[in-house]
Amino acid sequence: MIKKVLFVDDDPILCHIIQKKFTRYKHSFSVITAGDGLEAIEKLKENTISLVVTDLKMPKMDGLTLLAHLSEKYPDIQVIVQTGHGTPASKKIALERGAAGYIEKPLNAEDLGQKIITSLKKESEGGTLRAVTLEVFLQLIEMEQKTCTIRVVEKKSGKQGTIFFRDGDLLDARFSVHQGKSAAYEILSWGEVALSIQNDCAIKKKKIDGDLQAILIDAVRLRDEAGENEEPTQETKGAETDIEESDPKALPLEDIVRNKLKKVKGGSKYLADIYQDNSWNDLVTRASEVGKFFMAGTLKSCYIDRGEATDFILLPGKEITVISVDPKCSRDRFLRALNM
Q1: 50: helix, strand or coil
Q2: Is 51 helix (H, G, I), strand (E, B) or coil?
Q3: DSSP assignment string, 70-139
Q4: CA-CA distances (angstroms) from residue 102 to 47, 74, 90, 121?
């Protein structure tokens, strides 16, 4: 995903030059410009920004005021301060207020470009995950008492949010202009997500009351209530009627699985096949060992996303039960239904 950098300066010629010169980095980031701090705040509301480069002296709202706003409302966004009237005192103030870098004019576009690339790499210094259940991953962060900033992207919509942990404690979350519990609930309502992990956290103060488990339970409840309020489509109604009729030749285990998935709205719409296949045994064994290492309990089910036309849910047992599903299914709801 191409990241967006917001360049803030009241010199329109400089803004134009920076945009033109930074086209060489088009595969890494794009540049949006603003003429002062107030315009920058509006651009932040309209775009998902990864990094801000701002001048200090500007009309309407100066760089230090913008930096303070970013530290409070967008603590996950890194800021590089640039100025033509720098002093040791102004540099000290900018860094103390959370700036990730400080450079003086006249700007060297190549040096600034490299600083931006280096700063953007910090967003994923702890790795990236593209096929993961968010709830399980957050519980592992809590168990391992990690300090990190987790950036979450919902694959279907492209929506992005950020979750902050310090020593395994959930401190805050941000989605667009929303922070705290409302942002956490929004992010946790997303289906298939990709994650990038930054190995530090700009937040010092806890802004979300309650522990992670309580937040996860509330988020699941709100998500389920929202799903129950959705009007079923004619296609879904037909699919749910079809699942009522059991195939007399079906294996008892298949009947059990189908009955459990009936509890998921439109469950049969995304169900492709159910069968036994012990060729998955090694993968299930390794997944069980990872679960034991993290003290996550006994493995009950395992969701496999290989980027193919169908995904797979594996159920451990004497024989591995394989449930072939459409990737568009609500994987979290499927897994909860099967594990009940």
Answers
A1: coil
A2: strand
A3: HHHH-TTSEEEEEESS--HHHHHHHHHTT-SEEEESSP-HHHHHHHHHHHHHGGGTT-EEEEE-HHHHHH
A4: 24, 19, 10, 18
Which residues are CB-contacts of 252 (< 8 A; sequence separation ≥ 6)?
Answer: none
Name the residue with tokens 């492209």: 158
pLDDT greater than 90 at residue 32: yes
Q: Are the CB atoms for 228 and 193 separated by under 8 Å? A: no
Question: Minimum mean pLDDT among 55-69, 121-135, 241-255: which range?
Answer: 241-255
List, in order of start, the domains of the chain with CATH numbers: 3-122 (3.40.50.2300), 128-228 (no CATH), 234-339 (3.30.450)
Q: How far apart are CA 108 and CA 130, in angstroms?
A: 36
Kindly tell me the burial class for residue 211, based on how many C-beta atoms sit within 10 Å of its own C-beta (0-12, 13-18, 19 or more).
exposed
Q: What angle do CA 36, 38, 39 make, to 5 degrees?
A: 70
Cα–Cα distance for residue pair 127/139, rounded to 1 Å: 17
pLDDT of residue 303: 85
